[in-house]
Write a structure and sequence with these properties.
The protein is an alpha+beta fold. The protein is built from twelve helices and eleven strands.
């Protein structure tokens, strides 16, 4: 028997039956205590004995018979006053056989005789015995009309409880089965507020994460195959030229150039994969963020000069934070180089560093063509370009901002882009102190911008 529904239902019914049996036993015990020695009924019987004895001694058998008859009508049952031998003093009948079934000790004793309650009371001098036989007021059959509706009502509640617990588990099992068969969009969508509902919502979060990861992997493989196809084709063409061209030195130089581009692409792919690691494994060291920003600006200034633009560092606030210096440097450098690439000649790239009590903020603004509003979150996706032509002349391979986004996420920060009109502003916020052991839990939640990117990615792959 593996059905949770059946198990719960059987356990509930077993509990119900045991409860009903216990209630009957307790009721029987309580009634027995009520009619036991020294109870209220005993005192009534003692009083009846005294009155019957007085009636018999004062007015004879007829008065006694009338007194006992009234007692029968008022109290119910049979009342007999007998002597030591068992002779009925009211009717003269021999009740010795009945008398022998009674137990007499000091006071009144209650017994059951032939299914009836038997109470024998002896006078103090031992001359008289009052025998009382009454029908048993506690018969199970008389209480069945009350027990049966209760039993049915409780049984229905047990059935509803079992169904309420087992039904959502069955639905969740079907949902998990569909998800395992490849339907990655299926969700439990549980509205319950108990542990079963939390289980369903946990599955939904897991499914959402797995779907986004699988979708991202599929998109990544498609983009990698697309990006590798062009340099490989050029390398093949360059290799042919080496064999046939008159100027072999130029052909070899062209081949080396394509090999270098392919090597750069592979290197960036490896770097992007490494950046998507475990946040708890980020190196913790004290570093001067202002010096890192200043060094990046100095390194990128030569590239800016070659483009006819320049980089302006608007703030030199001294700031020390905790983190991985190399990852932070690469993130800032990728953003600055991306800004330099799109800044027109004669314009500037503005870089600023500011600080709050908890975070450090780095802003990089260019004065180029900008990015459409709908693409502000997409630019952090691997291989995404605003220009769909996917040529290296319009930018790099499309991994710079992805590497920056993943590096910032590893430091529990956030990165976003805004339309600066003109140009584009990319900002980074990094906590000055990294979180402790809960870093993995933080990363599993993902920053808000990551949720938006996952949604965009899902829309693109539909």
């Amino acid at each position: 028997m593996r059905s949770v529904y059946t198990k719960i239902l059987l356990w509930c019914f077993a509990t119900l039956v045991l409860s009903m049996a216990a209630m009957v036993m307790v009721s029987q015990f309580v009634f027995t205590q009520m009619v036991s020695k020294g109870s209220f009924f005993d005192r009534i019987n003692v009083l009846l004995l005294e009155q019957a004895q007085k009636a018999y001694e004062s007015n004879g058998p007829q008065a006694l018979a009338a007194h006992l008859s009234r007692a029968d009508k008022v109290l119910g049952g049979e009342h007999h006053l007998v002597d030591r031998s068992g002779r009925d003093l009211a009717t003269g009948e021999d009740q010795s056989a009945l008398l022998r079934q009674f137990r007499f000790e000091k006071g009144a004793i209650q017994d059951m005789i032939d299914g009836r309650v038997a109470a024998g009371v002896a006078s103090d001098d031992g001359r008289y015995r009052l025998l009382v036989l009454a029908s048993n007021p506690y018969r199970l059959s008389s209480y069945l009309p009350y027990y049966v509706p209760i039993f049915i009502a409780v049984a229905l509640l047990c059935w509803a409880l079992a169904a309420r617990i087992a039904s959502p588990l069955r639905d969740l099992a079907r949902t998990v089965d569909r998800f395992g068969r490849g339907d990655l969009s299926v969700r439990a969508n549980s509205q319950r507020r108990d542990e079963i509902g939390e289980l369903g919502r946990t599955f939904d979060r897991m499914a959402e994460r797995i779907e986004s990861l699988l979708t991202s992997e599929r998109r990544l493989l498609q983009d990698i195959s697309h990006e590798l196809r062009t340099p490989l084709a050029r390398m093949s063409f360059a290799a042919e030229l080496v064999l046939t061209a008159d100027d072999r030195a130029a052909a070899v130089a062209r081949l080396k150039k394509q090999i270098r581009r392919l090597s750069d692409l592979v290197g960036q792919l490896v770097e992007a994969t490494q950046a998507d690691g475990d946040p708890s494994a980020v190196a913790r060291e004290n570093l001067r963020l202002d010096k890192i920003v200043s060094d990046v600006v100095d390194d990128c200034s030569l590239e800016a000069d070659a483009h006819g633009s320049r980089i302006v560092l608007q703030s030199k606030t001294a700031l020390e934070i905790e983190g991985d210096a190399e990852r932070i440097r690469r993130a800032i450098e990728n953003i600055v180089r991306n800004a330099v690439r799109y800044t027109p000649a004669g314009a500037t790239v503005d870089v600023s560093l500011s600080v709050t009590p908890d975070t450090a903020k780095i802003s990089v603004r260019d004065y180029g063509p900008g990015v459409p509003e709908e693409a502000l979150t997409k630019i952090f996706l691997p291989f995404f370009r605003v220009d769909d032509s996917r040529t290296s002349s319009t930018g790099g391979v499309g991994l710079g901002l992805t590497i920056a986004q993943r590096a910032v996420a590893l430091h529990h920060g956030r990165i976003w882009a805004e339309d600066a009109n003109p140009g584009l502003l990319v900002a980074i916020e990094i906590p000055i102190l990294l979180p402790g052991p809960s870093a993995r839990e933080y990363h599993s939640g993902m920053p808000q911008y990551a949720d938006k990117q996952v949604a965009v990615l899902k829309e693109e792959t539909k």
